[in-house]
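FORM 7B: Structural annotation worksheet

SECTION A. Query
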Amino acid sequence: MLVKAARTRDLASYSPGNLVLSNVANAVHSVYVFNLPAGPIWALHMAYVLASALMLAWWLRYRQTASTRSDGGTAVHGEGSAVGIHISEKGEL
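SECTION B. Predicted structure
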């Protein structure tokens, strides 16, 4: 997930609400985890916290307006796996 997001910088399929909520929940859960004795749970939790925070930061950094892209064209983002598939005027792929 992180490698693909870093490589493509296309985070349009990620919900901003979900990214924010997971980071808030991680902050709350960190209070509990860091009150436990140091151990493997700290490493696992930190990996998840860092991944979630990085995804939110990248989403904020690389988000694009719905009408324009950085290359000057119009954004063509649909649902699901159709993202990135452009259909010509004749309807051919």
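SECTION C. Observations
The chain is about 50% helix and 0% strand. Residues 31 and 44 are 15 Å apart (CA to CA).

SECTION D. Sign-off
Analyst initials: ____
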